[in-house]
User: What shape does this take?
Amino acid sequence: MPKITVVKNILDANDRIAEENRKIFDKEKIYVLNLMSSPGAGKTSIVERTIAVLQGKYKIGVIEGDIQGSADAERIAKLGVPVVQINTGGACHIDGNMIREALPGLDLTQTDLLIAENVGNLVCPAEFKIGENVKVMVLSTPEGSDKPAKYPLMFQQSEAMIINKIDLLPYVDFDMAKAKKDALTLNRNLKIFEVSCKTSAGLKDWFNWLSERIESFRSK
Amino acid sequence: MPKITVVKNILDANDRIAEENRKIFDKEKIYVLNLMSSPGAGKTSIVERTIAVLQGKYKIGVIEGDIQGSADAERIAKLGVPVVQINTGGACHIDGNMIREALPGLDLTQTDLLIAENVGNLVCPAEFKIGENVKVMVLSTPEGSDKPAKYPLMFQQSEAMIINKIDLLPYVDFDMAKAKKDALTLNRNLKIFEVSCKTSAGLKDWFNWLSERIESFRSK
Assistant: This one.
C-alpha cells in the first residue's frame, strides 16, 4: 500500500510558504507590513495616509486583499505606487501562497516597504502568516471597546494597534481606557496609536514608529 | 482494503446537521433567526431591542456565538430570557453542530422565537447554515457603503439587511443610496431597514416585519 502523507495542519503548510516569502523579502531588504482589521475600520485610509507621508523616503508597494473587486487597489494606484490586487474568491484572509502568487506583479528590487492590506476580518487573518515583518491591526471606535475581550487572537498577534476614528468619540460609546487595558492584558507589549484619518490626529506617531521599524530592519 | 469514505465538503456535512436542527425546530414550531454582521455593527443591541418589544408576544430564547467570553450573554440574560453562550474557541462562525450542542440548554417547548447571534464576521458566517428560518445581516454606517461590493456573499444570503447607526450619518462618509443599490444588485429581494438602536429610529418596521414572518410560520 502506498504511503499516505498527511499534511497535519493547513497552518503548518502556510508557515512554510510564509518562511519562503520571508527569505525573498530579506534578500531584497523589503520590510513587510501585514495590516488587519474588521471591515470598514479604515485600513485603506491608513495605507493612503502612510504612503503620502513615507513615499518620499521609501519605495512603497502595496498588495490589496479583497474577496472580490479592486476598489481599494484603484484608490491606492492614484497615489502613484505599484499595487497588486489579490481576489481571494471567497476566502476570509490572505495567506502565504496568495502573497507568493502576487509577488511577480511587483518589482521587488524597487521596493523598500511592502504593505499588505488583508481582507476585513477580525478573526481569521490573525492565524495566517504571510512572511511579514510586522502585523498591525486597526480598531475603530464605532466597533466598541469590548472587542479585545471577544476577538483575542488578533490583539495577541499584532505588534501595534491603531485605534482609528477618534473623531467619532463624542458620538459613540467607546471606553478608551477599557479598550487599551483589555488589549494590553492580552498583549502587554502592544504599541497603541490613537488616530483619526479624517482629522490627521495622532498619525505622526504612527509614521514615526513605522519609519523607525523600517530603519532598524534596513540597518541589520 | 477497507472502503474510505470521504466527506467531500465540510459545508455538505454542515448542511445535513442544519437540516436535522430544522426538523427539531419545525416539530416545536420555533422560528429561528440567524443574525450576522461585522464586529461591532450592533447585533447585540438589536437583539436587546427586539426582545424588549416582542417578549410580551412570544417566548424568546437566545444563543450567543462568541470566540470566547460571555459578555453579550450577560447583557441578554438581564432581560429575563433564557440564553446559551457558545464559545467557538477560535472558530470564526457558528455552525449547525454548535447549535445542536447548544439546544439542551434551552427549553424548546417554551420557545417561539430563537435568536442566534453569530460571531462578528462579514465573511464566514454566511457560508454555514444552522437550521434557521431566516438570515438577517446588520451593516453599520461607519463601516462604509462599499461593503456590499466587497463582501457579496453575506448580502446574497440574507433575506433582510438592517442598516444600523443611522444616527452617525452626519459624521461618517456613508452613501446610503449606493449601499442600498449595491446590496439590491446582489440580492434584489433584500428587505432593508434603516435604524438606530440609539435613537430608536426605524426599529418599528423591523419589529413588524419579524412579527409577520413569525406569524406566517406559525400559521402553516
